[in-house]
Amino acid sequence: HAEAQLTLGERYYYGFGVEEDNVQAAHWFRQAAEQDNTQAQWHLGVCYENGYGVEKDETQAAQWYRQAARLGESLAQHSLGECYENGIGVKKDADQAAQWYRKSAEQDSSFGQYDLGRCYANGIGVERDLAQAVHWYQKAAEQGLDEAQNNLGLCYEYGRGVEQDFTQAVQWYRKAAELYNENAYYWSGLCSYFGRDAEQDYAQAAEWFRKAAELGDWYAYYWLGTCYDSGRGVEQDYAQAVEWYRKAAELGDEYACYRLGTCYLQGRGVKKDLTQAVKCFREAAELGDENAYYP
Fold it and tell me: What's the sign of the alpha-carbon dihedral 171, 177, 178, 179?
C-alpha cells in the first residue's frame, strides 16, 4: 500500500487529477513514509522544510531526509547535504555536506553531482580541486542540469580545471540558456559582446543581456545600459541607458553608479544635475570603483 499512498500524496502535492492540497499530500506522504518508503520520506522532509501542509519544522525535515538517505534515496542524500551546508535543522558541517553530496552524486543524481562539483570548486568540505569540479559539473551538465552547464561554461571560459576553450564555453552557456538559465543569458551576452568564440555581435549580446535583465540579473542591467549608451546592438537611447544604469546602481553595482554619474554630469538621458552626479560618484567610490575618484 505504501506505493499507492505515495502516488496519492504526489497527486495532491502536484494537483494531478485532483485539486492541489498540501495538507492531504503531507498526510499520505506520512502514511507511506512510516512504512519506509524512501521517496515518501523525502517528500515529507520537503513538506516540513517549507511548511507545505504541515507546520514548518526544519529539524523534522532533516530527520526525514536522514531516514531516507540512510536507506539510499539519492534525492534525500542531496537534501541532507544541503541541510548540513546551510544549517537547516542541523548544525552546519561542510564535511558532512560534501559526504552526502558524494553519496547522491555516485547514484547519478545530477543535483548531487552539481553540488559536489561546487564543493570541489570552492573547497567546501573537501580540498579545493578544480579538475574534480569540472569532472562532476560535466556529469551533471550531460544530464541536462542548467546550473552545471553554466558553471562548466565558466570553467572552459577561464581555464579553471580544464584547458581554456571559448568554443566549449559558449556551447555550454547556450545549452543552459536554452533551459532559461539567467546566468547563462548573461555570460552568453558577454561572449557575444567581446567576441569570445567568433566575431563580436553586439545585437546578439544586447538580446542576451535583455533576456537576463528580464529575469532580474542585475549585472545584465549594467551591460544593457551600456548597449543603449553606446548604441551597440540597439538604437542609441540615453534615457534607456539611464533607466538600466539606475536599476543596477540601486542594487549596488559600482560601475553602474559611475556611469549614472556621468549621465548626470553631462545631461545625457537625464537633466544635468551636478549634485546627483557627485552623489553617484561618491557611491561608486565607496563600492570600490577607482574611476569614480576621477570623473
Answer: positive
Residues 179 and 144 sit within 8 Å (Cβ to Cβ): yes
Residues in the chain: 295
Q: Give the single-character DSSP code of 129.
A: -
Q: What angle do CA 178, 211, 267 make, to 5 degrees?
A: 160
CA distances from 67 to 4, 45, 85 (A): 20, 10, 18
Map grid coordinates 561542510 to a residue.
94
Mean pLDDT, residues 198-209 taken together: 93
How much is the pLDDT for 193?
95
Write out pLDDT tens, residues 121-164.
999 999 999 999 999 999 999 999 999 999 999 999 999 999 99
Q: Return the closest-CA partner of residue 114 out of 159, 157, 144.
A: 144
Tens of pLDDT, residue by residue over 78-91, are 999 999 999 999 99
DSSP 263: H
Q: How far apart are CA 186 and CA 218, in angstroms?
A: 10
Q: Helix or strand or coil: residue 14? A: helix
Please identify which residue in the block is written with the cell numbers 534607456.
240
Q: What is the pLDDT of residues 46-93, one digit of tens each?
A: 999 999 999 999 999 999 999 999 999 999 999 999 999 999 999 999
271 contact partners, CB below 8 Å, separation of at least 6 = none
